[in-house]
Design goal:
81 residues, globular, DUF371, single chain, five-stranded antiparallel β-sheet, mainly beta
Length: 81
Amino acid sequence: MCREGRKGVLCIISRYGATCIQGKCNQFEGSCKIILRKGSFKSPETLLYDTNFSAYDIDRDLINAARLWGVRAVVTLMVYQ
């Protein structure tokens, strides 16, 4: 299960991988709800992409999704238990 209290983890997704600003994208256990946003940190543009991933799939699938929508994206991990 996802750890409680780890909401709002921000990551930069690019063609080279995931670089996290706060926390780590791959430190969660179980499933996490992920909202992929494109744009700047102050005014992100929410994409129609909201799904659940296991910890194993987070980095790989988010990087693949970012490649489809552009090389740069802001990711917010909404963690629940």
